[in-house]
Every structure is written in C-alpha cells, then in structure tokens.
Amino acid sequence: MLPDMAGETPVFRAGTIEGxxxxxxxxxxxxxxxxxxxxxxVRALTPVxxxxxxxxxxxxxxxxxxxxxxxxxxxxxxxxxxxxxxRLLNVENMHILATSAVxxxxxxxxxxxxxxxxxxxxxxxxxxxxxxxxxxxxxxxxMPEFSGMVGDLxxxxxxxxxxxxxxxxxxxxxxxxxxxxxxxxxxxxxKAASIAAKRLKKSKVxxxxxxxxxxxxxxxxxxxxxxxxxQSNYPMxxxxxxxxxxxxxEKLCARxxxxxxxxxxLDQINRTRAGLLPYGAAVMSQxxxxxxxxxxxxxxxxxxxGYLYARLSKKQAAxxxxxxxxxxxxxxRGRSEQxxxxxxxxxxxxxxxxxxxxxxxxRRLRKAICLLSxxxxxxHRDYRGEQSVDLVAYSALSGLDHPGRAxxxxxxxxxxxxxxxxxxxxxxxxxxxxxxxxxxRLLGTMLRVAYALSxxxxxxxxxxxxxxxxxxxxxxxxxxxxxxxSARLRTRLNQLARHVECDLSxxxxx
Length: 510
What we know:
Elements: E1 23-28, E2 32-38, E3 47-54, H1 61-64, H2 69-88, E4 93-98, H3 100-104, H4 108-119, E5 124-125, H5 128-142, E6 148-153, E7 158-164, E8 167-174, H6 178-185, H7 189-200, H8 204-208, E9 213-217, H9 219-231, E10 242-245, H10 246-258, H11 271-291, E11 295-298, H12 303-309, H13 314-317, H14 321-333, H15 337-354, H16 360-372, H17 384-393, H18 402-417, H19 434-454, E12 465-469, E13 472-477, H20 487-500, E14 504-508
Parallel strand pairs: 1-4, 4-5, 6-9, 9-11, 13-14
Antiparallel strand pairs: 1-2, 2-3, 6-7, 7-8, 10-11, 12-13
Helix pairs in contact: 2-4, 5-12, 6-7, 6-11, 7-11, 9-11, 10-11, 14-16, 15-16, 15-19, 16-18, 17-18, 18-19, 19-20
C-alpha cells in the first residue's frame, strides 16, 4: 500500500506555463521502468520529472516463461515511489505502457494488476506491432522531416518500422533484445552475433527497405552514441538527432564485440549498461550489414513520446515543435512576447531589401532566434551571452538538429556579445557550414541593431522600415522617433554594414 499522506499538497511547479496540465508516462520495459512527467501534453514536450530504475524484468522470461519474483519486487518498489511522485506533481493524465517482458510473461497480467493498484490507473500492454508504431511516431515527433528505417532495441525485443513522409509502415517485432540475447547466447558475444544475423534475415522490414538511413532508439544504442561522441571529442553531448557514418558505427561495434578492456571512455558508461553494449553492438552491426545503411541517426524520443504524439489533435500534431518550444521559452524568460514577434517582421524587412531569399528551414530558424533573443535578460550583463548560448544549445528543444542548435547558439552569442565574441558557441561552429555561419552572425548583428532601437520594448520596431538608398540600404525612422538615432545605434549599424558589405544609413521620414 502507498503511505498515508493525508493533507498532502501537490508540488507547485514554479516556472511552468500557466494553465499547463501535467501528463505522465510510466514505461515498464524489459530492462528498466521509467517515469516521465511532462509539463503539458503539447507538440513540444518538456519533462519536469524523468527517472528510471534498472530492474531487468525481462531476465529469464524467454526460458522460464515468468518474470523473476526478485526483479518484479524491485520494479514494484520503484513504481510505488513513482506513484507518490505522480500524486505530488498533480499529474492529471497518466499513461502506463508495458512492453516485451510483461507481454510475454505468464505472470505479466498479475504484475500489471499490482501496478494498477499502486498507480490508480490501468496499464496498456503493447503488442510488438504497437511498440514499433509508437517508436516510429516518437522519432517523427522529434524529427518531423525524418524518412528512413527506425529500430527500437529494448531488453526483450527489437522493433523495426519504416517511416516515409510522416507515415510508418511494415512495423514488426523480433526476439532480439539485449537481455534476451545474453540469455539465449549464454553470455557469448560471438554466438549472440550469429543469433542476431539469423533472426534479422527473417525481417520483412529489412528486406523491403531501400533507405540509406537507420534511426536507432534504446538505452544501449544511446550508450554507443555517447561513447562515439566522447571518443571523437564531439562538441555536443546530446544524443537526439546525432548523425554519424555507418562505417564508423560498425568499427566501434566490432571493437565492442571483441574486447572492451582498452576501449576509451568506456569507464564513463554506466556499469550495468556497459555490460549490455557488446550485445547491442552485435545487433547494430548485423543491421548495418544486412540493410546496407550509409547513415546512422540516434533518437532519444521513442515509444513514450510517440504514444503521446498519437493522442494529439491533427492541429496540435501539425505544430512546429521548435517554434512552439521557443514561444514557451519566450513567454517564461523574455520581457515581451510581442517584441519578439516585432523582431520577426524587422529582420524579414531588412533581408527583403537585401534581396535575400529564405528556405523554409532558414525562416523557422530566424523566427526561433527572434523568440529566444531575450531569454538571458535576467542574468548578469557580463554572462548573459554565455547563459543564453547554454540554454539554447543544450536545452531539450526538439525539431532541431545539431547544426541548427549551433546556428541558434552562434546567433545568440553575437546578439549579446558582438561579432568578436569568445563564447562557448565557438566550440560548436564546426557543426555549421560557412554559409550558415555567416547567416547566424547576420541575424545576431541585426538583433543588436534592433535592441539598440527598441530597448526590448514592443510597438517601436513595426514603425521602422528599410528601403534601397542608391547602392546601400536606408533604415527609415519616422520623424517622431528621430531621437532614437543614437551613437550606439550608429555603431551597431556600422557593424552590420561591414558584415553584409553594404552601406547602411539612417533616414528620417517627413
């Protein structure tokens, strides 16, 4: 039974969106049980609680047919605590999902009855096909433009599906989880690789796929990605949307399957997870070989996010997750949401006069940086730039790849610190092409001009326009705003002029 908490008061979640109604997902997997509570059930999910407990519910299920009582006890102890967290966080909508171990165990139904007793909500045991479907939707929720094959490697099974133009097809489940492989191979990695090859050859999804990109989900594969990032001195330790050459992944997998003793940075991987790496590597190496993939992409989003994504309305699901998250950050951290929107028109006006054409991706990044441009205002003036760079580059934003994160970080660094800044974003610029780096700095410099004009106050920027002045560009101020033509504004206009190699002047209209 849960402890008597008479008179308990739900936790007040300071700093959250007004009116947000928390939604939670308890994910009961073969390797671990995890509770994630999100601030609100929207397109851009923001976790307010995320914790797991390693319980190995899938250990021995394939051979005994039952969840081991000791492992069940560990899981239920964690779930009992999670139930209290759900109550204290006042979670209005709670979803419980169970996968391979519970699905296959003879005592799985009894286990879920106890879970329902603790949580006050009945759970849903996903079929293998459902698991594949929601894993694919999870990838789509975090990477709206993704097309390719999706694989979700758990403790008891591997789910494969194909994503094309936002639709998943050919979902299937295979008996290839890392715990199952350990059990089936007798802890022999070479035998595990042989088992993986044999079972993957039966995969209809692999046989019928013509894509060159494989998206990997699951804790063991995320650990492989983390290892690759550390070994390559990658400038960002974020797994979501981390892209690598399949040949490099294959080389690391081969080493992990042979001898881990001298593998660099392996000591920084959780010990329990490290023991599973050779088996995850065995599955990955066979997938690359049989599917002939060129690119491997890693996703932190999976079944949990996909399950919630499937429950959004069509209108909610169509929202841009990056822009929705940027709007939320602007609302929580900026001084004026209206000023941020004024910046969108101001920057568009200047680019139009320059003759710049934007792609859809460039437009959404520009809009995002305008929304995020004032999130550091509460910080000390000497550190606002660094703090803003960290908030954007290393945040839980979705719908944004690593070059996009670096782009936004550089634009914010320039906005606060100028073109000659020496901030953490300089470590990230290697992820951005020279062309996009120029544009990020252009946006940052334009924002410096805008803030010199408006002081972050709304309604001023829409009264300013740009027009051609000979070979240059004139920034036109109405006569009643002529007093805004300050030395500071002139300095920042000169910086922008040098960056775009174009004469810029201030014109006072009649």
